[in-house]
Structures are given as C-alpha cells and as structure tokens.
C-alpha cells in the first residue's frame, strides 16, 4: 500500500522550508510530508467526498482517457479536467499521455496520511 503524506503549514513556512532545502540547509526527514496545504480547509476541498469517490473510480476502473472517465463519472469533461489538474498539483493523480494525445488519469496512492501539528512548526533546520 503506497501512502502520500500531507502536512499543513503556512505559505511563509513552506517557502522557508523549500529555500532551506534548495540551499542544502535542511534535509527532509524520512516519513516527513511531501505535499503541503496551507489549511485544513484547502485540504478538505481538494479531497472532498466527491473527489475521493472520483479517485476510487479511477483506481477501480482505470479509464484510458478523460472522455472515458467523464462517461463513467457522469461529469463533464471540462469539470473533470479542472478537478484532475488541481489534484495532480498535489500528487493525488497522475495525468499520463495516452494514445493520440489523450490524457490518462492514474491514482498513484492507495492512502493519504494527514499530519497536523497543534503547535506552530519550527523553521526547517539542517
């Protein structure tokens, strides 16, 4: 079972962390989240019940195009395209090139783990 670890942190903290990593001052610890959201609300919007159902549908049916997924999901292709692009930014979906330039959605993870700190996270250190 492959798990995506997600964290919640402010934009400023995430930027400082990214810069510290790029300067070689911080090495992410094993098991540390690899995807970050700025709030639990933004996380909840991306992983709403409807979107989790969509991810389960993709994993189960393995559609070979967005058109096929739209038919399976009963949703418009343009709506799905926007939703999947958002989810792909967070690593929840991969959009692979299919035959004749089609996009093939794939779900790379079977589980998501959300790490939420009740105390403001410390600045990244080396």
Compile the SSE list and pairings.
Layout: E1 3-8, H1 11-22, E2 35-37, H2 40-46, H3 49-61, H4 66-73, H5 77-89, E3 94-97, E4 103-106, E5 111-115
Quick tags:
single chain; about 130 residues; alpha/beta; Arc Repressor Mutant, subunit A; 3-stranded parallel sheet; two-stranded antiparallel sheet; 5 helices; 5 strands; about 40% helix
The gist of it:
With 126 residues, this protein is α/β, with parallel strands linked by helices. The protein is 42% helix and 17% strand. It is built from 5 helices and 5 strands, in the order E-H-E-H-H-H-H-E-E-E.
Describe the structure.
This protein has about 130 residues and is an alpha/beta fold. It has one domain: Winged helix-like DNA-binding domain superfamily/Winged helix DNA-binding domain (Arc Repressor Mutant, subunit A, Orthogonal Bundle), CATH 1.10.10.10. It has 5 helices and 5 strands, in the order βαβααααβββ. The protein has helices at about 10-20, 40-45, 50-60, 65-75, 75-90; strands at about 5-10, 35, 95, 105, 110-115. The strands form 2 sheets. A 3-stranded parallel β-sheet has the order 2-1-5. Strands 3-4 form a two-stranded antiparallel sheet. α1 links the parallel β1 (about 5-10) and β2. The mean pLDDT is about 90.
């Amino acid at each position: 079972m492959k798990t995506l670890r997600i964290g919640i942190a402010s934009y400023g903290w995430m930027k400082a962390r990214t810069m510290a990593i790029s300067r070689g001052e911080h090495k992410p610890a094993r098991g540390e989240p690899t995807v970050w959201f700025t709030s639990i609300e933004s996380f909840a919007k991306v992983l709403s019940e409807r979107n989790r159902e969509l991810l389960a549908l993709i994993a189960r049916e393995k559609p070979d195009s967005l058109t096929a997924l739209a038919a399976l999901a009963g949703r418009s292709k343009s709506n799905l395209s926007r939703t999947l692009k958002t989810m792909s930014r967070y690593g929840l979906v991969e959009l692979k090139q299919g035959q004749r330039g089609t996009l093939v959605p794939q779900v790379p993870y079977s589980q998501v783990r959300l790490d939420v700190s009740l105390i403001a996270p410390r600045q990244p250190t080396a």
